[in-house]
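Minutes, project check-in

Agenda point 3 was the complex the collaborators sent over. CS summarized: two entities, 928 residues total, and the question is how they sit relative to each other. Sequences were read into the notes so everyone works from the same version.
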Amino acid sequence: MFDIANNSEAHLGRRGPSPATACGAHDHVTRRGFLKTGALAAATPLLAEVPFAAAQSAAKNVTKVHDFQTSADIAKAEQEGEVVYYGHDSEQGIAILLEAFRKDFPKIKTSYVRLQTGALYAKITAERSAGRFGVDVLQLSDISPAIDFQKKGGWEQYMSPEYAAYKPEYQSTPAGYFGVPGVGFSGIAYNRGKVKPEQAPKTWKDINNPAFKDGISVKLATSGMQHAQWYVLRKMFGNDFWQEFAKQRPKGFDARAQLFDRLAKGEDRVCALAEYAGYTLYQEKGAEIEFVAPPEGMPAIAIYVGVVSKAPHPEAAKLFVDWALSKRGQAVYQNQKILLYGSLRPDAGAMPTGKKLADFKLLFPTDMNDYVASHPIFVKEWNSIMGL
Amino acid sequence: MLVLYPIAYLVQASLSVGDPQARPPEAYGLDNFTGLVRYAHIFGNTLLVAALATVLAVVVGFTMGWILSRTNVPGRAAFEQLMAMPYYVTPLMGALAWALIASPSSGFVNQVWRALGGQGHLVDINTPGGIAWVMALFEGSVAFVMIGAVMKSMDPAMEEASQVLGAGRLRTMLRITLPLVLPGVLGAAVFVFAEMLGSFSAALVLGLPNRFYVVTTAMYQLVSQYPPRFPTAAAMGVSLFVVMFAMVWIYRRIVSRGTYVTITGKAFRPRVMDVGGLRWPFLAVCIAYLAVAVILPVLTITYASFQHLTTAMPRAANFTLVNYKTALSLDAVGSALGNSLILGLATASLGVLLMGFLSWLIYRSRLPGAGVIEYILMFPQAVPRLVFAFGMLWAWLIFPIPIYGTLWLLLIAYLTVFLPLGLRTISGVILQIDRSLEESAQMCGATWGYRLRTVTMPLLKPGLIAAWLLLFIASVRELGASILLMGPKAKVITPAIVESWFSASTELTAAMAALQTLAVVAALVILFAVARRAVQQGGE
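CS then shared the predicted structure for the full assembly.
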């Protein structure tokens, strides 16, 4: 199995394209070479021009609370008494996350705004441009707005002591702007009652099987995961792969719940972007669905969390980020089935399914310059494939 | 100002041709409008479902309005109350229910059809006709309330005169009733058509599975993508103004051509026609309408809310209470539901005053430029609320009074976006009241305030009550504007319900929608009981 923790060839946090994707064209990339370099895209080579803040608050006054470390002033954080969180997860997922934090810090109230990443980012940037700074912690599901926010000075540079448990490539460049509290990934899923065993998809190329025409679903261009899948499979199989897929007349939806709801009810026969987290939820409900982890690997993306600059409750915000990145917080991100983000911490336990992130062969975009630059092309092509 | 202030930002965004995220825009041009050509099929889809749904809704609204206001159908008082029920059933709930009932593969009807030996599917709700059907059912009751209010205020002497002169019931209905309630019908048609243009939930739930987009669902995608394409979405919204203005212009032309006064100084008591044996077919029509618009969807949603995974023929193990347990644990069903009810009360009460005054200003004050005011007030109806909300977000963010992120902002937003709803409902009745009644009071020496209190207001009462009810429900179920404008401490329920459909499950969504509907009905029952007691005590 692909071991993400040991993937030392990955150098996504460094400026410039990786050797495997040097020209950004698929014909220069061997599949083997591409897969070997698969790793996390958290770091940001685009940001070399961002000046490293001289006043980096690196690891000073580190204290231990519960079983994690923080540089936040806990007394002040409790005096602030509140943390305002903007996030992309489901209402239920955010509620569980914040409740777990509140349980550990009962003197700190939590409140949140939940929107899809695009609208969420639009809201926070509009607020900040009008001089309103009401947010303490921001979590995004896409690297592009995370980088843009860093360029705009939106993140506070805070060196969480918990970053020590993460490889440098799983942090922003320079470090301290945002961290990666989890990873999501997708395979293929199908309805056992609608797809005969001999027709069941096994590899990514099988999603283009004409037998699935008008019965296959994916996500819309709003999804960061969909961008990652489009990107890595395009690199692997060439541009024609998705043009072939367009002939299937795929149906696009906003979220995984809709994809699995329809798959479980037999409205779609195959889901070509089946998130593992969604699969486990619906399998538990007794849905007749099967998950396929194609041998080529599964497209994966990270989520990003950090302290927002000019936060109204800065110490509480730091404490939250430390908690989120700690083993304690990661247990919530990873073990709550509504979230089920794989942890990048080497000391993280297994997921509720009994598997660790390292047990899966994951495909991360490798060349971040190329990946971020490909976003507008993806949106245009994917909108067209979806009939928009 | 409520309307034009955000509109200015919206128009500005539609002309932005630089970085789509830059505020204020880096450069101006018409590229966003010329680029809309590639979305021509989406405008076509929108007009198709809006027109289909409007025709259906107005036919249903008129038929039901006439049956319940003008005929002696059995149980009409009860039916009249029940007719508002589809409006309590939010379009999202209706769409989800009909998706469960009539989806091609898993729809209950089609499952039963195949169990009986049928092939394929009997019905498919994921079609333009299906979307229009759901939109008409759940937006159609607005037409009923609007037309019904007008019909109630009509002097039956005219219909009686027609019958005395030998015309049959149908002829009387078509030649006398229909022309007299024309302002109400047209007002409802204009309003419903605009409502359908901006309809979101039904097209989202039922259109996406068939790759069928309308303007609102396309806009939603454009502003949800990163980077959000506000300029294109704003241009789409602004271009809908043209359609809306054409509709208002037609409405004003028709209204200004004739006189629709039915309430004059001559006393009348609303009476109903004896339709003889036709009472029973009419009763069947009422029951059938309520079955498809209320009973079936509510039962379906309730049934789904108690299941792990909804199927027509579930195993016993599939039944659960977990959806309610989860729903009740969420902020959305606690504080947000309370906030929604408070906002509903405030919007309806303030809205009736504000919109009643504006209706009087437009149709009674002889103020120069009153027509222009009407056009301006219809702006919020012309553009989908999600996009209008961006205009309001930009506008109120920089407003010096710190209301951003509070319930006050949502109140302002609701009063703005529901101006057309209140205006259409109240003005339909105002047009029926003969000016001479107010003038007579004036001749008798009554002051402006006294005239308003003793003459105008009592005559407007049915329209005002209808408007209050509509505004209350519309506020509680509001989605588009609330999504962006609610702050972390000022949340409302409907966005959370839609969000749970996106990110949780149909079953949890069903539980939340059921709780919302229950709370709204309970609030209204309590309100009416309190109001009735207050009126009785006042009379004693």
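Noted in discussion: Chain B touches chain A through 55 residues (CB under 8 Å).
Follow-up: revisit at the next meeting once the mutant set is ready.
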